[in-house]
C-alpha cells in the first residue's frame, strides 16, 4: 500500500492520500512504528507546498515521532524535517528552525544521504526569513552537489527549485534564467507533475519582468492548469500573485485586489505581509 501511495503521489494523483491513510491505520494495527512514520511521511506529498498550517498533518508527524522513540536515526531525521516544514506557519514561528537543525544533525551522524537531503530541504524552509537569503543559497547549493554525488535526481530537482526561488529573490536574473532551464530539463526528464508547472510559471515571470504581458498571461494559464492538475495548492496562489504584480506594474489596480488583501489579512498565516500589500493597494486606489 505504501508503494501504491508513493506511485500515485509521484503521478500527482489525489487518490494517494486515502491510500496512505489506510496504510497508516494498518501499520498502527500491526504496532509497527516505522511503517506508521513512512505512511505519515507519504501523506505529506512529493516536494514542498507551504500554504498554511495543517494541524492534522502536524499532529500525525508529532505522534509518529513519539512512536519511533529512539528508532532509526535516519527515519527520525526525515520525520523531524517534515515536521519543521509543516510547522513553518505555526503560531510564533519558533519551532521550524530547531527541528530542521536537529534533523540535519541526525542525518549527518547517521551518514544517510537521503535523510540529509530531506533535512537540508527543511532547513531551507526554516531559513525563509528576510535575512536568511545567503544561508538558503548555501543550503540549495549543498543539496544540488550532494544529490549529484549520490545519484538522487529528485532531490537535485528540489534543490534546484529552491535555488531558482533564491536567485529571483536575490535579483540574479541572468543566473536565474540559466538555472531555470536546467530545472526544466530535469523536471521534464523525471516527469514529476509537482515540479513541471514551475517552468511556465518562471517563464511567465520573466515575460512580465520584460513587460511582455500577453506572453506572460498565456504562460500563467499553463502554469496554473498544470500545477492545479498536479494537486499543488501553490499553483493558483502563484498565478494570482503574478497577475496582481502585472496589474500593479501597469497601474491597473482593481477593487477586487483590495478585497483579496483584506481576506488574506484575516485568514492567511502570512497576514503581516498582506498588511504591507494592503497599504500598497490603498495608495494605488487613492
Describe the model.
- The chain has helices at 2-10, 16-30, 33-43, 55-68, 73-86, 96-110, 113-126, 133-149, 153-170, 173-190, 193-196, 198-209, 213-229, 234-249, 255-267, 271-285.
- By secondary structure, it is an all-alpha fold.
- It starts with a helix and ends with a helix.
- Among the domains are: 1-46, no CATH class; 50-126, no CATH class.
- It contains 16 helices and no strands.
Walk me through the topology.
Blueprint: H1 2-10, H2 16-30, H3 33-43, H4 55-68, H5 73-86, H6 96-110, H7 113-126, H8 133-149, H9 153-170, H10 173-190, H11 193-196, H12 198-209, H13 213-229, H14 234-249, H15 255-267, H16 271-285
Helix pairs in contact: 1-2, 2-3, 3-4, 3-5, 4-5, 5-6, 5-7, 6-7, 7-8, 7-9, 8-9, 9-10, 10-12, 12-13, 12-14, 13-14, 15-16
Separation, N- and C-terminal Cα atoms: 57 Å
Which stretches are poorly predicted, pLDDT < 50 over at least 5 residues?
A: none
Structural class: mainly alpha
Overall geometry: globular
What is the H-and-E element order?
HHHHHHHHHHHHHHHH
Count of runs of 4 or more consecutive helical residues: 16
Instruction: Report the sheet-strand fraction.
Output: under 5%
Q: Tell me the helix content.
A: over 70%
The largest sheet, given as strand count, sense and whether it forms a barrel, is: none
User: Mean pLDDT score, rounded?
Assistant: 92
Report the C-alpha radius of gyration, rounded: 20 Å
Total beta-strand segments: 0
Amino acid at each position: 500500500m505504501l508503494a501504491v501511495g508513493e506511485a500515485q503521489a509521484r503521478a500527482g494523483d489525489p487518490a494517494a492520500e486515502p491510500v496512505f491513510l489506510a496504510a497508516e491505520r494498518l501499520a498502527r494495527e500491526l504496532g509497527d512504528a516505522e511503517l506508521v512514520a513512512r505512511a505519515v511521511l507519504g501523506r505529506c506529498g512529493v516536494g514542498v507546498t507551504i500554504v498554511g498550517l495543517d494541524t492534522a498533518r502536524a499532529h500525525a508527524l508529532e505522534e509518529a515521532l513519539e512512536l519511533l522513540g529512539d528508532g532509526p536515526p535516519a527515519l527520525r531525521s526525515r520525520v523531524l524535517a517534515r515536521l519543521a516544514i509543516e510547522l513553518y506557519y505555526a503560531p510564533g514561528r519558533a519551532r521550524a528552525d530547531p527541528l530542521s537543525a536537529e534533523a540535519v544533525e541526525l542525518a549527518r551522524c547517521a551518514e544517510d544521504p537521503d535523510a540529509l537531503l530531506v533535512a537540508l530541504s527543511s532547513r531551507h524552509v526554516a531559513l525563509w526569513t528576510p535575512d536568511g537569503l545567503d544561508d538558503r543559497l548555501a543550503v540549495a547549493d549543498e543539496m544540488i552537489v550532494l544529490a549529484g554525488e549520490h545519484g538522487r535526481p529528485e532531490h537535485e530537482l528540489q534543490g534546484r527549485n529552491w535555488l531558482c526561488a533564491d536567485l529571483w529573490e536575490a535579483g540574479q536574473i541572468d543566473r536565474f534564467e540559466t538555472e531555470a532551464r536546467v530545472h526544466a530539463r530535469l523536471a521534464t526528464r523525471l516527469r514529476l507533475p509537482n515540479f513541471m508547472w514551475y517552468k511556465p510559471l518562471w517563464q511567465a515571470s520573466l515575460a512580465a519582468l520584460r513587460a511582455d504581458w500577453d506572453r506572460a498571461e498565456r504562460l500563467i494559464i499553463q502554469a496554473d492548469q498544470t500545477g492545479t492538475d498536479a494537486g499543488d495548492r501553490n499553483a493558483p496562489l502563484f498565478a494570482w500573485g503574478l497577475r496582481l504584480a502585472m496589474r500593479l506594474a501597469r497601474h491597473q489596480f482593481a477593487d477586487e485586489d483590495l478585497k483579496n488583501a483584506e481576506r488574506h489579512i484575516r485568514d492567511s498565516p502570512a497576514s503581516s505581509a498582506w498588511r504591507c500589500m494592503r497599504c500598497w493597494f490603498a495608495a494605488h486606489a487613492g
